[in-house]
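Colleagues,

Please find the record for the two-part complex below.
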Amino acid sequence: MKFITIDKKDWAKGIEKSRKTYQLFGPVKDKNGFFIKSLGKDMLPDMDYHDSVMSVKSVLFPQTENILTTTLDEAQEDHHIMKRAVTDYSPRAVLGIRPYDAKAIELVKLNFDTDDYKDPYWCDAYEATTFVGLGLNKPGPFDFSSSTGSGPFNEEGLDVLLADLDDKYLAKVLTDKGEAFIKACGFDLIADDKESQALFDILRKEAEKNIVSKISTDKLKEKTILEIHEAPFWDDIAFSCINCGTCTFVCPTCWCFDIQDETKRKASTRIRNWDTCMSPLFTKHATGHNPRDTKTQRVRQRFMHKLKYFFDKYDQGIMCVGCGRCVKSCPVNIDIREVCNMMNSYEKQE
Amino acid sequence: MENPYMPYPVRIDNIEIATEDKSLKTFKFVILNKEDEKKFSYEAGQFAELSIPGVGEIPIGIASSPVEKGFVKFTVFKAGVVTSHLHNMKEGDIMGIRGPLGNWYPWDKLENKNIVIIGGGFAFTTLRSSIIYMLDPANRSKFKNIDVVYGARSPGMLLYREELFEWEKRDDINMHITVDSTDDPNWKYHSGFVPQIVEQQAPKADEDTYAIICGPPIMIKFTQPSLTVLGYKQHQIIMSLENRMKCGIGMCGRCNIGKELVCKDGPVFTLEELNQTPKEY
């Protein structure tokens, strides 16, 4: 493991230098808050942000993405024969993402990169991306990442983890990709391993003290899917839900998508869009039959997927990293922390 | 890395109207590239995405059988945007198919067993594929008795009528064809709903007998008690499910029943497996 000290005065210069190799993304403020955006010329990541409204997932999984194209013009020899849409997968680096978002990418990878099928769009974007994280010194009131297997200084999914030390960053280089990025920036002031790690440990412990809410997941595994599915509390949980889908869009681990064809003149494109299990259309058959016709069924699906189906299927913990975005954004104050604890402590009445 | 979203280009070789009300048509496709044809090697019970550029995709069970070479066949009910478009297409048109997708009937487990096939309405496509597969001279000896109960509303709504009546004449398969009702005085087969005919005609269960059911939800619901009366256990009842799908490869997230994805872990499940999942199908 290697630690590098970066004086904040050198930060902008280094970042500029890396543009020769990398397309950059990072936190940028707009009228609705902070978002992870592509950094155009002269734009720098705003590293003083606390958290972003949307997660980093769109860098690998855009909200709308062309996947295939063809022409419907029968005068063309290759009409109606689909080709992969052209997308730029040159190296890119995302700067300053919070550790829970990087952990989320590792969870989403389980869906898109499997033994049977690989989603080429997601996998190519993943390969092309270097994740430079920024430890969260003062987690906010919605953060419960330390009880989900992530945390304010969690390293999973990151290539570099930065710690903000007021006048400088201490960078922990975690992978070869991370090493290459640091090199491209020209940062080369090596710090002492032992001292640096000790400093990271202190920062992590201090940060974790700020996390006041917790979820318990220890008893989720021992219950059957049907037991929790048939629990009596789902109507109460779903009562206030308006099925707006905000929770699914802000969630860093929600990956569900729709595929649609769009045609302009004779040029046809097959497009993948984010979808949401909160919509009745998500599961509606052509016959009109809908297996998840009621909002209770849909709300239950979201929580069961995150906290039980995923857990049982992959044995890699729950599909939630505790970023708290859904809690913060929900217009009717549905709180996944409460739901998780209800599911965890539920005992079937015989 | 193979792109699982990329359809194989196909040409519509033949279109046949499959039922008297014209709501179903059977499409025979020829795969344009020889290498693709090799890759599209399937088992009876699997499905594929029929892919029409500019319109969209639909998941449909494969009606041709692995023992039929040189083409793939699908029988499609006109229901939504893509199927309506497909019904208006013509022979020679170019489109795509993506697959084969999903699991299949458990053919290795079914060897040396008696098989009872139960189908209703237009859910007979992968069952046709299965019957052709089992009756193939190379395969027939692998199975013991084969019984088929197949019903539709009226004689004209039965799929693959010519084949049904051919099978009826054979002595290595017991056909029990039925219609809900008919005023045809020459109708020489059964009249009555599928669950009834199952109870009267299907063999009683023993350890070596398996039932495969495909049909509308109402038929499945009422056939299960008939099979229970005959002594079939949950693991001996095999069913094929349908749910709304997009990707067909277990990624887009909509077709799940509990932690199982109908497109990838299914569409074929035993009743024993289904009884452990939420009934979201």
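Residues 107-240 of chain B form a domain with the Rossmann fold fold (CATH 3.40.50.80).

Comments are welcome before we finalize the supplementary table.
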